[in-house]
Amino acid sequence: MKQKMDFIGFIRILYPPVLYLFFMMMVQTVVGAVLMSIVGVGNVTNKEANDILMRYIQEMNVLSMLVSIPIFASIMYYDTVRDKKLNIYVPMNVQKWWKFLLIIPIAFTTMVGGNNLAIVLAAYMPGDFIDKYAKTESLIYDGSVLVITVSTVILAPIIEEIVFRGIVLKRLNHYFNFVVSAVISAGIFGIFHLNAVQGVYAFAVGLVLAFIYYNYGIIGCILLHMCANGFSVLFTFIGSGAEGSIKDIEFTGDLIQSALTGAGTFAVITVFLMIIIAAVCKKNNVENINQ
User: Fold this and answer.
1) Of 110, 139, 155, 193, most Cβ neighbours within 10 A?
2) Which helix (H) or strand (E) holds 50?
């Protein structure tokens, strides 16, 4: 039986992503202060100081995620203990190893479809929105391959899946059915990215990740997120390189039509793969729900 949403429940759903943002800003502020004390605030202009901070943004992200992962993993564990005491605990699905292989192709189709969607959105959004997305894009891929891999491919999927699926989505499931919980959690996930283009992309990916959580649990979500980010990083460096930007794209009619077709095609393939996963994991889901 679903619980009734109240103010406490509302706060319990919203505070994890807000707290995560706070940790990220706190670590960046502390590290930035240390860097400025080393360089000497009076010896550099504001632009030079900003350039120094941006040069180490990936390292600061790594540090903030390393701080955040054990904290939010503890919150997720506390939720499990609390749910068991309240007799509302639903065990995570335990799938055979070969079923996890189905996550790899859906990670690829989600990434390619999402990138095509981003191109379509960028073609019609105001310049300020594109500038903000391009800045975010440059920050993600600014740094050594090793640091980017650790930050974007390994740590970011772990902390984001713990926060948005392991905590937020799981808590939403106590109040709403799966579809409503998936949409709300995906919406929060999109807003968290703080720019319109990436937000819409993240919302779509969040829906897929909610489906994966239902069928595989948190491990499946982390695996899909790692694979999708890994494919994105790989193709970025193989293709245009880290210096490429969405601002450099010439949005011709043919390109927009091609991107729209690509987004639609890969969306259909993704849905097809989701149907296969649902069929393969159906028996396991029924067993867990009946426990």
Assistant:
1) 110
2) helix 46-55
Backbone angles phi, psi at 209, to 5 degrees: -65, -35
Q: Which two tokens stand for residue 208?
A: 């897929």
Q: How confident is the model at residue 287 (pLDDT cuts 50, 70, 90)?
A: very low
CA dihedral 235, 275, 202, 100 (to 10 degrees): -60
Question: How long, in residues, is the chain?
Answer: 291
pLDDT at 41: 59
Structure tokens at 50: 């900003």
Residues 6 or more apart from 159 whose CB is under 8 A from it?
20, 65, 68, 69, 72
Q: Distance between CA 181 and CA 43 in Å, rounded?
A: 51
- Give the contacts of 241 (CB within 8 A, at least 6 positions apart): none
What sign for the dihedral angle of Cα 74, 213, 64, 198? Answer: negative
Residue 138: its pLDDT value, please? 73
pLDDT digits (tens, 9 = 90+) for 173-194: 999 999 999 999 999 999 998 8
- State how far the alpha carbon of 112 is from the alpha carbons of 177, 193, 199, 231, 269, in Å: 29, 19, 16, 9, 11
151 CB-near residues (< 8 Å, 6+ apart): 58, 61, 62, 65, 143
Dist CA 16 CA 66 (whole Å)? 16
Q: What are the respective helix, strand and coil percentages of the chain, to the nearest 5?
A: 85, 0, 15
How many other C-beta atoms are found inside a 10 Å radius of the C-beta of residue 43? Answer: 9
Contact 59, 30 (CB under 8 A): no
